């Protein structure tokens, strides 16, 4: 087995054809990574390779480039097969290969994975794709249906083999590999080499070169990883606070969908931050312009999806915010790797919902690092930092400008108005802070909660596997809250907001909630205030200081067969002034 050495080499020295090395230059790949330097030469020679390297070491190019070099684009049949564990990884690999091959005329890539309908996949294969990238299950389906034939396949790569093992794909992979010609060149890549993977290697690889890049434990040591457990405040407000109080040169915020990039960026902009969205709807030129603006400091914050942020290399990025967590834990590693470039210090803050907390352990394992709890800046701290900034601003003005004339004006004003200069300074300050108050108050607007939705649908979408439905487009429309503005709500009641673990996805309607609560504790419905329904939870206003036994009783209530699991919420629903109606005695039984 050969371990990595760090002798610098160039791509040209590895013997890659020019059609590939020019594409690499365009992609900004200057030198090969260690695993690439080790695996490309033997793979170009036609040898089999067993490659052991962690995430982010550049494995896609390590097998993708030499495999592409062996493809005859005049033959419009599958010649290269890549098996990857998940739909996301398959798509990523396919996209990378398309980029590597962008100067190879006539080269086509087909991506096959579960959850998507067969039609487009048949079409892609039939158009003469030479490269097939896919997940094991769907690849088997295509083989069974004979829509995919392997007799011309000269190269097969297993990507993230240990992950496929973990996901129970071992037998599927063996089944697929059994369909390959004996001469097919094999590359097996894995972050670890458990015995089952070695067995596959022994069975399907011919005298392979075993190449390994030793995991670099401290690779992410310069990145401080923080996690804010989402509670109390919604994510937009949280992001606002982070953007305002933490010091950073450039920040990248990861969100799930294209729509979210726009929405979150616009929100930040409206609050006075130099933020912009970057997403797949923008063309390459627009994206580059935006990235340049971040690079030169015109913009401070980019709000991006994974798809467009991949490969972003901007050394000034010193803060990464995971506004939404990625479906794939490894993507987390890629994301936070956008900061801490070239040994600089970086920070990542992830907004993690209580039910997603288990992921922290995976992140720690994947980064060999610690993820620390992060407390959001309080409203008081925000005020303090604003005052501090204002002071700095004033001192800068004093240091850099001649203000003698202004001094005269102030003196005259003070004399004429018989006010102290402190009074006048305070009045100016008062005026200045109207847009951004020096003593900010908690923002009570509940509608924000609508955007702070659950990770609803991810699991469903992951199973369904449709890329388009994965949120880039799929979650318009139904994300907003449904509100009840009851005509019968009383204005003389001291309200408290409660959270219920039942929402639209369970089929709940405001009426169901009113009915269930009113019945269970014999409460007149005029004592049930506003109800905001979200996908998987809802908020309801009930009178403050409910007796414990009543509260306990409510705990067991079910709506649409879903336990409401009522809890106190810190997020207030905006109380709207309503006409009092009825004056029934408040009555709990
Ligand atoms: P792995 O599969 O090992 O996790 P990838 O192949 O996905 O790694 O590469 C990780 C990132 O590094 C990608 O953004 C890729 O574009 C980038 N990358 C890979 N090789 C190079 C290189 N030689 N120079 C610059 N960037 C590279
Ligand atoms: Mg990979």
Automatic annotation (TrEMBL):
Enzyme class: hydrolase
Family stated for the protein in its record: Belongs to the DEAD box helicase family. DeaD/CsdA subfamily.
Biased composition (Basic and acidic residues): 440-493
Motif Q motif boundaries: 9-37
Functional summary from the UniProt entry: DEAD-box RNA helicase involved in various cellular processes at low temperature, including ribosome biogenesis, mRNA degradation and translation initiation.
Organism of this sequence: Thalassotalea eurytherma
One protein family per Pfam: DEAD
Reactions that this protein is recorded to catalyse: ATP + H2O = ADP + phosphate + H(+)
GO MF term set: helicase activity
Domain spans labelled DEAD-box RNA helicase Q: 9-37
Keyword Hydrolase included in the entry's annotation: yes
Compartment list: Cytoplasm
InterPro entries per record: CsdA_RRM (IPR034415), DbpA/CsdA_RNA-bd_dom (IPR005580), DEAD/DEAH_box_helicase_dom (IPR011545), DEAD/DEAH_RhlB (IPR044742), DEAD_box_RNA_helicases (IPR050547), DeaD_dimer (IPR057325), DEAD_helicase_DeaD (IPR028618), Helicase_ATP-bd (IPR014001)
UniProt KW keywords: ATP-binding, Cytoplasm, Helicase, Hydrolase, Nucleotide-binding, RNA-binding, Stress response
Domain Helicase ATP-binding: 40-211
CDD domains, per the entry: DEADc (cd00268), RRM_EcCsdA_like (cd12499), SF2_C_DEAD (cd18787)
EC number of the protein: 3.6.4.13
Protein name (Swiss-Prot/TrEMBL): ATP-dependent RNA helicase DeaD
Sequence ranges assigned to domain Helicase C-terminal in this UniProt record: 238-398
Annotated region (Disordered), positions in chain: 435-496
Chief localization: cytoplasm
């Amino acid at each position: 087995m050969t371990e990595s050495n760090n002798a610098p080499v160039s791509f040209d020295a590895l013997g890659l054809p020019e059609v590939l090395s020019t594409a690499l230059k365009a992609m900004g790949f200057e030198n090969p990574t260690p695993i690439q330097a080790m695996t490309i030469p033997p793979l170009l020679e036609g040898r089999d390779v067993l490659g052991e390297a962690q995430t982010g070491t550049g494995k896609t190019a390590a097998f993708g480039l030499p495999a592409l070099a062996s493809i005859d684009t005049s033959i419009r049949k599958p010649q290269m097969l890549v098996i990857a564990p998940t739909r996301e990884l398959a798509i990523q690999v396919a996209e990378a290969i398309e980029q590597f091959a962008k100067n190879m005329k006539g080269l086509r890539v087909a991506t096959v994975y579960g959850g998507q309908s067969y039609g487009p996949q048949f079409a892609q294969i039939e158009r003469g794709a030479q490269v097939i990238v896919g997940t094991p299950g769907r690849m088997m389906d295509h083989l069974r249906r004979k829509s995919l034939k392997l007799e011309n396949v000269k190269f097969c790569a297993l990507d993230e083999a240990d992950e496929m093992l973990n996901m129970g794909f071992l037998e599927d992979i063996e089944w697929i590999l059994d369909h390959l010609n004996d001469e097919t060149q094999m590359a097996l890549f894995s972050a670890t080499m458990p015995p089952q993977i070695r067995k596959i290697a022994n069975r399907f690889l011919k005298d392979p070169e075993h190449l390994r890049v030793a995991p670099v434990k401290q690779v992410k040591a310069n990145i401080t990883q923080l996690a804010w457990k989402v509670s109390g405040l919604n994510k937009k407000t949280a992001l606002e606070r982070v953007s305002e109080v933490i010091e950073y040169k450039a920040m990248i915020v990861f969100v799930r969908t294209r729509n979210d990039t726009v929405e979150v960026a616009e929100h930040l902009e409206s609050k006075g931050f130099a933020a912009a969205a970057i997403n797949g709807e923008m063309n390459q030129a627009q994206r580059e312009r935006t990235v340049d603006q971040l690079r030169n400091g015109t913009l401070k914050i980019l709000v991006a999806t994974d798809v467009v942020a991949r490969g972003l290399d901007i050394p000034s990025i010193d803060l990464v915010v995971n506004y939404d967590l990625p479906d794939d834990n490894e993507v987390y590693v890629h994301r936070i790797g956008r900061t801490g470039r070239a040994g600089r210090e970086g920070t990542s803050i992830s907004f993690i919902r209580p039910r997603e907390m288990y992921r922290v352990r995976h992140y720690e394992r994947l980064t060999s690092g610690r993820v620390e709890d992060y407390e959001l800046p309080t409203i008081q701290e925000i005020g303090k930092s604003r005052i501090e900034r204002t002071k700095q601003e004033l001192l800068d003005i004093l240091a850099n400008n001649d203000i003698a004339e202004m001094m005269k004006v102030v003196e005259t004003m003070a004399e004429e108005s018989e006010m102290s200069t402190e009074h006048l300074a305070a009045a100016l300050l008062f005026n200045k802070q109207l847009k951004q108050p020096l003593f900010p108050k908690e923002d009570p607007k509940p509608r924000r909660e609508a955007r702070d939705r659950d990770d609803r649908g991810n699991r469903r979408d992951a199973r369904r596997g449709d890329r388009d439905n994965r949120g880039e487009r799929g979650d318009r429309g139904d994300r907003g809250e449904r509100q009840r503005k009851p005509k019968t709500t009383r204005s003389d009641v001291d309200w408290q907001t409660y959270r219920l673990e039942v929402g639209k996805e369970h089929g709940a309607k405001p009426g169901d909630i009113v009915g269930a609560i009113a019945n269970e504790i014999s409460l007149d419905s005029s004592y049930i205030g506003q109800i905001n329904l979200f996908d998987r939870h809802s908020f309801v206003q009930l009178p403050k200081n409910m007796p414990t036994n009543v509260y306990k009783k409510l705990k067991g209530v079910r709506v649409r067969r879903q336990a409401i699991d009522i809890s106190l919420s810190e997020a207030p629903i905006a109380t709207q002034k309503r006409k009092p109606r009825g004056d029934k005695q408040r009555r709990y039984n």
